[in-house]
Design goal:
Number of helices: 6
Structural class: alpha+beta
Helix content: 25-40%
Oligomer: single chain
Number of strands: 6
Largest sheet: 2 strands, antiparallel
Strand content: 15-25%
Strand order of the largest sheet: 1-2
Order of helices and strands: HEEHEEHEEHHH
């Protein structure tokens, strides 16, 4: 299966996501490197390059996630899948507490841990965006309440 993503498909993913990273909810205009299209289930795990398997992701979330589909929570020794922005509701798995993205579920914990939501650099980025009124955006607030 090809990993090529056409400009048309990229545009559809971005529009569906309202130009937000579908993981951390940062708007593409508020991150230096913009956003990329992520295979939710990577090609090597059998995922396909179709709209229903693609998410909009900031460079930081996309790079941290890589081709992973989940992680082991060492507290329980269980493999936990990652948050799927197309089938899961953000507000069911995370809560924004200032610049901290607090996980509410095991899926939220696994995702926040691997994507580095609360690494110091990410917290500083969100604090700066909050201070200038650019995070969360109106679109992000809607996702936080759904």
């Amino acid at each position: 299966m090809s990993s090529y993503i056409s400009e048309e498909l990229r545009s559809l993913v971005a529009i569906r996501a309202t130009h937000l990273c579908e993981y951390c909810l940062v708007h593409e205009e508020n991150t230096t490197y913009g956003c990329q299209v992520d295979h939710i289930i990577s090609l090597k795990h059998g995922g396909t390059t179709v709209l229903e398997n693609l998410a909009y992701a900031c460079v930081f979330c996309n790079r941290h996630k890589g081709s992973d589909i989940g992680s082991i929570l060492w507290s329980t020794q269980e493999f936990i899948r990652f948050f799927n922005p197309l089938t899961d509701k953000w507000a069911d798995h995370f809560k924004l507490d200032g610049a901290i993205i607090r996980p509410l579920t095991e899926i939220g914990k696994a995702t926040a841990q691997i994507l580095g939501f609360n690494n110091i650099d990410r917290i500083l980025e969100l604090q700066t965006l909050i201070a200038v009124g650019r995070y969360p955006t109106i679109s992000a607030k809607v996702r936080m309440k759904k």
